[in-house]
Amino acid sequence: LYQDILNNTPAAIYLKDTKGKFLLVNKQFEKLFHISQEEIIDKTNHEVLPKNSQNSFYTNDKKVVEENTAIQFEEIAEQGDDLHTYLSLKFPVHDNEGHVTGVCGISTDITERKKFEKGLEEHKKSLEGQVAQRTIELQKSKELAEAANRSKSEFLANMSHEIRTPMNAVIGFSELLSELSLSDKASHYVHNIRSSGHSLLLLINNILDLSKIEANKIKMNY
């Protein structure tokens, strides 16, 4: 029953002594590393595993023995032409007196999960880059809009001043003309000039107030 459980689990399970020699591996381990249990028993990592995995596996096994506690590692193992990432739980094995006699490891292939996480991270960075670029573009657009608004306010203020000066003269002369002895028709014309001049002057003053509001220069009287 114990052997059936070992051989039918999707995780690679292995047992080593304190010197790093393999005592047992399950069928999944044999399948992943293309080696039989008979070929690996009494051999160390350096004798049977790919070179890029030997040192890290040995270092992790040694740490579990020295600290006498279960530790979880992410380990890289060469599988054919590809590298696979494993989440390995390694824990010490004890004899009846409590002495550490070896290390047992349970390794689960998380290669696809790591690729997915890497893809998510790259997508996240891409989105962050797009947001940063968009933020810069919006800031530039805001600055251009503010500059255009300032130019508009300056134009309105200058234009209003330029129009108000001759308009005051028109109103002033129309008032002088109204004091003269004129025919009814001429008086009507002068009245229309003065009335229209006051209306236009009021409009100009309102435009000036708007430009002052936009420039934060208007003063409120209570």
Give structural notes:
- The chain is an alpha+beta fold and 222 residues long.
- The chain is built from 7 helices and 5 strands.
- The protein has helices at 2-8, 27-33, 37-40, 45-48, 51-67, 111-178, 184-214, and strands spanning 12-17, 22-25, 71-79, 82-94, 100-109.
- A 5-stranded antiparallel beta sheet has the order 2-1-5-4-3, sandwiched between helices.
- Strand 4 and strand 5 form a beta hairpin.
- The longest helix has 68 residues, at 111-178.
* Structural Rg: 44 Å
Total number of strands: 5
Biggest sheet details: 5 strands, antiparallel
Sheet with most strands: strand arrangement: 2-1-5-4-3
Determine the strand fraction and express it as a percent band: 15-25%
Mean pLDDT: 85
User: What best-fitting shape do the alpha-carbon axes yield?
Assistant: rod-shaped
> What proportion of the residues is helical, as a percent range?
55-70%
Supply the helix-strand structural class.
Answer: alpha+beta
Distance between the first and last residues' Cα: 94 Å
**Number of helical segments?**
7
The helix-strand sequence is HEEHHHHEEEHH
> Which segments are poorly predicted (pLDDT under 50) over 5 or more consecutive residues?
none
Question: Could you write a compact summary of the structure shown?
Answer:
It is built from 7 helices and 5 strands.
Features:
222 residues, alpha+beta
Describe how the helices and strands are arranged.
Blueprint: H1 2-8, E1 12-17, E2 22-25, H2 27-33, H3 37-40, H4 45-48, H5 51-67, E3 71-79, E4 82-94, E5 100-109, H6 111-178, H7 184-214
